[in-house]
Amino acid sequence: MSNSLIKYSIVFIAAILVRLPQIINRPLWYDELQSVTFSSQTLPDLFESVNIFDVHPPFYYIQLKTWMLVSSQTDWIRLNSVFWFVLSAVFLIWITSTIFHEKAAFFSFLFLAASPFSIWISNVVRMYSLLIFLGLASYFLLHRLLTTEQRGIEKFLLYLVVVLYLYSHGAGFMILVSMVTYVAAESALNPQTRKKLISFGILLLLILASYIPWLIRAYDTSIQHALPSSIQSLSQTVYTLVFGFSFSQDWLQLLTLILFFLICSWLLLTYPNSRSMLLAYVLIPTTFCMVVSATFRSILLYRTLAYISPFIVITLAIAVEKLNTNFIQRQNQRQNYQFGFETLILSVFCFSTFFQFSDFSYPWNYDEATSFISERSTEDGYVYIPNQ
Questions:
Q1: Which residues of 54-74 are buried (b: 16+ CB within 10 A; e: fewer)?
Q2: pLDDT at 229 (0 to 100)
Q3: What pLDDT score does 329 carry?
Q4: What does the DSSP 8-state code read for residue 339?
Q5: Nearest CA-CA partner of 179 in 213, 214, 140, 152
Q6: Distance (Å, whole) CA 195 – CA 201
Q7: In whole angstroms, what is the distance from residue 263 CA to residue 192 CA?
Q8: What pLDDT digit, counting tens, does each position of 130-155 carry?
Q9: Is residue 113 within 8 Å of residue 11, measured between CB atoms?
Q10: Higher pLDDT, 236 or 152
């Protein structure tokens, strides 16, 4: 067995082990109960309920309904998000080793495995793990559309992946922002890709035609819990995507935003291969959220931007690889090199994950709620709830 395979296997096992304790014997909370309630219905009732009560399209609930055919136990339902994490992790390795290089692939996988935000969404019965997988798949297939002689089946897969993303989240149109930005950036940086613009334009029109039915319905809906357009909201969002839900102060969130912006700026200037990805899947989506939230309707939230979290991980991986190379080779310490900047990021992630586990709590007392309903319910099935 090669050393590379051993390293990947150890990280993979550790990633699964750190996620499983948060799955076992944990009750569902409000949004998760919505997911299970929608998914437990027949397909006609599911479509009707989602149309009336939810801001999100139905695809996530349909795939969860399929998953629940095996079992309706809470632990099994939570494993759905872990399943999409595993697929995302495998896809992440493939993408970064293909588009970038092997060392960036391992660091990306390592950081995704330890990411506090990734750990959290891997335990939540919501669509975010699915969105990450679909976002990664769309990026890879779009890259192939622009850089290779793509076969018809790959174009269809790109169309399918993007449409499934659009019909999985109320702000699914964000993936279109990333795709258009990526094509524009690649066309500006690499003239050879311009001959693919017609193919992309036709594909985009087909995608938009498929999305119009939901877009019309979504025009008058709003993303719940969205934040106002401000630097503080942006700092909070970026901090959550990087460090999860560990306790933080406003100054720490702002510092995270500044440092991450500096890393992105440095890579844009020094690493041409990362420019299109950084612009299309990190910087422009966050900017777009800010602009839309300020001018039309608030959509700024970590949930809206969850799909960019693996690209944040890739950004950190590329930065670490370049920093290690620059500092270690410059000091001629390559043979004595044991630990690099990846150790620092991994330590901070582990520290944040620890506090995320210890600080995060659910405000719902299920035992108390059950007793209340039992005491207040009448023979006719009504429950009296006083105004106070």
A1: bebbbbbbbbbbebbeeeeeb
A2: 78
A3: 61
A4: -
A5: 140
A6: 11
A7: 28
A8: 999 999 999 999 999 998 876 788 89
A9: yes
A10: 236
285 touches 308 (CB < 8 A): yes
Alpha helices in 68-148 (DSSP H): 74-99, 102-114, 116-121, 128-147
Cα–Cα dist 208/202, whole Å: 10
Q: Which two tokens stand for residue 361?
A: 């709590």
d(CA 268, CA 13): 34
Phi-psi bin for 225: left (phi > 0), alpha (psi -120 to 50), beta? left
Residue 359 banded pLDDT, cuts 50, 70, 90: low
Polymer length in residues for the chain: 388
The string over 244-259, giving b where at least 16 C-beta atoms fall within 10 Å of a residue's C-beta and e elsewhere, is: bbbebeeeebbebbee
Place of tokens 């992946």: 161
Based on the number of CB atoms within 10 Å of its own CB, is 83 exposed (0-12), middle (13-18) or buried (19 or more)? middle
CA distance 348 to 226: 27
Going from the C-alpha of 213 to that of each of 119, 217, 244, 377, 388, the distances in angstroms are 34, 7, 34, 42, 42
Q: Which two tokens stand for residue 265?
A: 């700026």
Beta-carbon count within 10 A of 298 CB = 18
Beta bridge partners of 227: 300
pTM attached to this predicted model: 0.89
Q: Stretch 204-231: mean pLDDT, rounded?
A: 81
pLDDT at 31 over 80: yes
Helix, strand, or coil (residue 295): helix
